[in-house]
């Protein structure tokens, strides 16, 4: 029988439901859903497929073990009991990249990292019968979570965070991450047959992620992962098969009406270059345009955007007028829906309308709000292409 693994997928706080749906759609069993991460079960192909296909996770960790520890002796022994030799070759370069702890007796991240590393070394010494490891082979980064004294240890199969798809080489000011943009899009009823406009597109993340969703382009197709080289864990054929599956699923003949606007012509050029790098340049129209000039002849469209929220004092002073303009432009599109993420708490006041829904989301360490202003649904007899 094929070995089954537990995999941990961290995500933005408040977006667990979107990630859960993605994992279920891939055909895997959910084990636990916690704040900011989901554990699921799958065979070895799940390691490759989750990295390549999931849009909303920050990384995919191969869970190595879980145990209770209230002191460093218990942490050491619990870590040492894990069969590391089944996953790490003799020349493996391994280290604890991050340790997070919450509501636990053990709270020093650096000490936790050091103890876990020592325990793994001791286990490896017994297996390989050597006193010193060169660690000049492939990389095996390790992450540790401790919550209420329950320790979870995982191998990081992704390496670089999954939000780095490989297309965004140029970024504007305060860009939204690719994983967060994809998750917010997936929280809306938007689909590829409906108009989508981002009037503050910056480096183009919302339009690009929307186009990738519409064309069914897997987010991990253009990048590599740490576990690519883990022949002891994931055979190369598994990766080749997953990439081939992703290639076969692309909708190459799809037609979409996606637009991105920004005041800065240089940022617009940057967004166009990023869209081209993502393979979706033909699906998106970018233009230098002020939000006050937002008009559209089509009906039942969507605005989704990450407007300025005032990092500096002089910017904060301009926010009331800016959000008032956003509200006025939206009012000129009476049957459209608008979704915006911002940390500006007076957004609804100046937009001039209370959001139909408001979801609290942490964008990094910044508490943000995802305001959802929902327009009427299109008539059922209306053809999507005419919308």
Record the SSE blueprint.
Layout (H helix, E strand, L loop, with lengths): L4 E6 L5 H10 L3 E6 L2 E6 L1 H10 L7 E8 L3 H9 L12 E10 L6 H20 L10 E9 L2 E7 L21 H10 L8 E3 L6 H10 L21 H13 L9 E5 L2 H13 L6 E5 L13 E4 L7 H19 L5 E6 L4 H5 L5 E7 L2 E8 L14
Parallel strand pairs: 5-6, 8-9, 8-11, 9-10, 11-12
Antiparallel strand pairs: 1-3, 1-4, 2-3, 4-7, 6-7, 12-14, 13-14
Q: What is the gist of this entry?
A:
By secondary structure, the protein is of the alpha/beta class. 31% of the residues lie in helices and 23% in strands. It has helices spanning 16-25, 44-53, 72-80, 109-128, 178-187, 205-214, 236-248, 265-277, 313-331, 347-351; strands at 5-10, 29-34, 37-42, 61-68, 93-102, 139-147, 150-156, 196-198, 258-262, 284-288, 302-305, 337-342, 357-363, 366-373.
- Overall geometry comes to elongated
C-alpha Rg (nearest Å): 23 Å
Largest sheet: 7 strands, mixed
Distance between the termini: 50 Å
Q: How helix-rich are the residues, as a percent range? A: 25-40%
Q: Which structural class do the helices and strands define?
A: alpha/beta
Q: Strand tally, please? A: 14
Taking pLDDT < 50 over at least 5 consecutive residues as the criterion, the unreliable ranges are none
- Oligomer status: single chain
List the helices and strands in order: EHEEHEHEHEEHEHHEHEEHEHEE
Mean pLDDT: 93
Q: In order across it, which strands form the biggest sheet? A: 2-3-1-4-7-6-5
> What is the helix tally?
10
Proportion of strand residues: 15-25%
Provide the descriptors you would attach to this structure in a database record.
387 residues, 14 strands, 23% strand, seven-stranded mixed β-sheet, 10 helices, alpha/beta, single chain, elongated, 31% helix
């Amino acid at each position: 029988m094929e070995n089954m693994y537990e995999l941990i997928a961290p995500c933005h706080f408040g977006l667990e439901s979107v990630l859960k749906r993605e994992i279920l759609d891939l055909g895997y069993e959910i084990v636990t859903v916690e704040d900011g991460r989901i554990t699921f079960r799958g065979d070895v192909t799940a390691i490759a497929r989750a990295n390549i296909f999931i849009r909303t996770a920050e990384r995919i960790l191969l869970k190595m073990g879980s145990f209770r520890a209230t002191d460093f002796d218990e942490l050491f022994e619990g870590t040492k009991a894990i069969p590391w030799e089944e996953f790490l070759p003799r020349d493996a370069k391994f280290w604890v990249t991050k340790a997070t702890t919450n509501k636990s007796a053990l709270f020093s991240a650096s000490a936790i990292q050091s103890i876990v590393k020592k325990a793994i070394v001791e286990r490896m010494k017994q297996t390989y019968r050597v006193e010193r490891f060169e660690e000049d082979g492939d990389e095996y980064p390790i992450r540790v979570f401790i919550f209420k004294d329950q320790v979870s240890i995982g191998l990081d199969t992704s390496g670089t965070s999954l939000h780095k798809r490989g297309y965004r080489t140029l970024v504007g000011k305060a860009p939204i991450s690719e994983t967060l943009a994809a998750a917010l899009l997936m929280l809306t009823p938007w689909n590829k047959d409906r108009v989508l406009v981002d009037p503050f597109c910056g480096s183009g993340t919302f339009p690009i992620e929307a186009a990738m969703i519409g064309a069914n382009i897997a987010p991990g197709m253009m990048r590599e992962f740490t576990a690519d080289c883990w022949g002891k864990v994931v055979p190369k054929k598994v990766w080749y098969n997953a990439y081939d599956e992703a290639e076969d699923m692309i909708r190459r003949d799809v037609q979409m009406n996606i637009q991105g606007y920004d005041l800065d012509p240089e940022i617009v050029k940057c967004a166009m270059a990023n869209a081209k790098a993502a393979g979706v340049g033909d699906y998106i129209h970018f233009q230098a345009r002020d939000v006050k000039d937002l008009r559209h002849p089509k009906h039942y469209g969507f605005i989704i955007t990450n407007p300025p929220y005032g990092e500096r004092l002089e910017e904060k002073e301009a926010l009331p007028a800016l959000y008032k303009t956003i509200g006025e432009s939206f009012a000129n599109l009476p049957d459209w829906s608008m979704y915006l993420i911002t940390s500006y708490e007076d957004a609804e006041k100046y937009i001039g309308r209370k959001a139909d829904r408001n979801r609290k989301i942490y964008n990094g360490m910044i508490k943000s709000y995802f305001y959802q202003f929902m327009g009427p649904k299109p008539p059922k007899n209306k053809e999507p292409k005419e919308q």
